[in-house]
Amino acid sequence: MREDLLHFIWKYKKIQLTDLVTTQGEHLSLLDFGTHNLLAGPDFFNAKINIDNQVWAGNVEMHLKSSDWYAHHHEEDENYNNVILHVVWEDDAEVFRNDNSSIPTLELRKYIPMQLLQSYQKLFDKNETRFINCEKDIKDIDDFLVKNWLERLYFERLETKAEFVFELLKKSNNDWEQVLFTLLLKTFGLKINGAAFLSLGSALEFSVFRKQQENLFQMESLFFGMTHLLEGEEVLDEHYIQLKKEYAYQKKKYDLKDESVLRPQFFKLRPPNFPTIRLSQLANLYATHSSLFQKVVSAKSLEEMHTLFEVSASEYWNNHYTFGKESKKSTKKLTSKFIDLLIMNAILPLQFCYAKYQGRDVNESIMNIISEIKKEENTVVRNFNTHGLVIANAQESQALLQLYNEYCTQNKCLQCAVGTSLLR
Questions:
Q1: Angle CA(106)–CA(109)–CA(113) in degrees, nearest 5?
Q2: Pfam families from the entry (predicted)?
Q3: Which residues pair with 61 in a beta bridge?
Q4: pTM of the predicted model as reported, rounded to 2 decimal places
Q5: Is 61 exposed, middle or buried (0-12, 13-18, 19+ CB in 10 A)?
Q6: How many other β-carbons are positioned within 10 Å of the β-carbon of residue 354?
Q7: What phi and psi values does residue 420 have, to the nearest 5 degrees?
Q8: Nearest Cα to 276, choosing from 319, 233, 238, 212?
């Protein structure tokens, strides 16, 4: 038994509504169940209850056991002084407010339909091999309900990403150019080098980087130098030697501090994702667009965004993946798939946050763009597909990641539209 089941029962009125009696023997009539409170304080606000022909207005608090009132120290918290009803699964102790007045208690287990408890038990039945709790039933859920829930989950995921963006904004003293620069670095680093590239964004001020924006060679020297890719074993390569000299000059000129910057990894990466290639591509992006931030936040379509990111690594990397070692000649362009990843994880969160900062709503525009991007292919999406949940685009695949990580794996079925639908 979990406390969230009590919240579900109360919120959706899955309780016998007649002949209710408190554990103190008082007759009870529920006039208004109140509003579910997901923040600190009592669980339901502004309820209205008739107790022995006296109407009370106030809050409702819920616990598995009455004694949890004292375990949570509610008797010391003035926010609980206006609780008019204590709803519990098991009444094991009499409860008083801090003025020593007794709080009426309703023992819920006496008034719950057995079918609801059986459905709840089935949903949470332990099975080590299950992907998610509702895997046998999710395919039968109404498609309209699922689509609406996935849309809500996408914006919930976007809000989570927004928290990180606003943290960057605070650290940069409201410098949106620095925020974009750091976001792009983190995203270009992907999963393996995201932390290393993020440390570069924290150590390198965009105002310094911007001064080199008309000189691609100087931008690359900053990137490669600060990430320690110009250190260690000496490479007998003229390009490498010149980059190293340039970085030594830039480091002294701007008093650059690279001690906190993590060295990126090559291990387990396909060559197109090597940090050398990704950093060169990002440098070329800034060399191509002198006012990248304004172009990014004003882009209104997926096509416009793809056009912005049509860049390649510099010429040296046409026949290299690492310094000093030649490879088969090929232009190292940003692929369409990688650009989609940048849009999902950097550009749309930035647009969302910038609009909130300005007091604008761009939700419809963001939905139009994310819905045009192809769905992601990963284990979570494939598993949902195996169990009958077919999705169409990146908005829905992003939503599934939110659903799986924040609800399914944490057994928050009673806070999920699918779980509550199965119980209702």
A1: 120
A2: DUF2851
A3: 86
A4: 0.81
A5: buried
A6: 20
A7: -65, -35
A8: 319
Say how many C-beta atoms besides its own lie within 10 A of residue 159's C-beta. 14
Identity at 82, one-letter amino acid code: N
- What tokens does 183 get? 């976001």
pLDDT digits (tens, 9 = 90+) for 33-63: 999 998 889 999 999 999 999 999 999 999 9
In whole angstroms, what is the distance from residue 312 CA to residue 37 CA?
51
CB atoms within 10 A of CB 212: 20
Q: Which two tokens stand for residue 269?
A: 């990466």
Axis crossing angle, helix 363-370 with helix 394-403, rounded to the nearest 10: 100
| Ramachandran class of 375: left when φ > 0, alpha when ψ lies in -120 to 50, beta otherwise | beta
| 3-state SS string for the chain | CCHHHHHHHHHCCCCCCCCEECCCCCEEEEEECCEECCCCCCCEEEEEEEECCEEEEEEEEEEEECCHHHHCCHHHCHHHCCEEEEEEEECCCCCECCCCCECCEEEHHHHCCHHHHHHHHHHCCCCCCCCCCCCCCHHHCCHHHHHHHHHHHHHHHHHHHHHHHHHHHHHCCCCHHHHHHHHHHHHHCHHHHHHHHHHHHHHCCHHHHHCCCCCHHHHHHHHHHHCCCCCCCCCCCHHHHHHHHHHHHHHHHHCCCCCCCCCCCCCCCCHHHCHHHHHHHHHHHHHHCCCHHHHHHHCCCHHHHHHHCCCECCHHHHHEEECCEECCCCCCECCHHHHHHHHHHHHHHHHHHHHHHHCCCCHHHHHHHHCCCCCCCCHHHHHHHHCCCCCCCHHHHHHHHHHHHHHHCCCCHHHCHHHHHHHC
Q: For residue 98, what are its two tokens? A: 């801090």
Check residue 109 and give its pLDDT.
Answer: 87
Task: Specify whether the CB–CB gap between 369 and 343 falls below 8 A.
Answer: yes
CA distance 387 to 380: 11
Enumerate long-range contacts of 165-170, CB under 8 Å, 24 or more apart.
165/349, 165/350, 165/353, 166/353, 169/353, 169/357
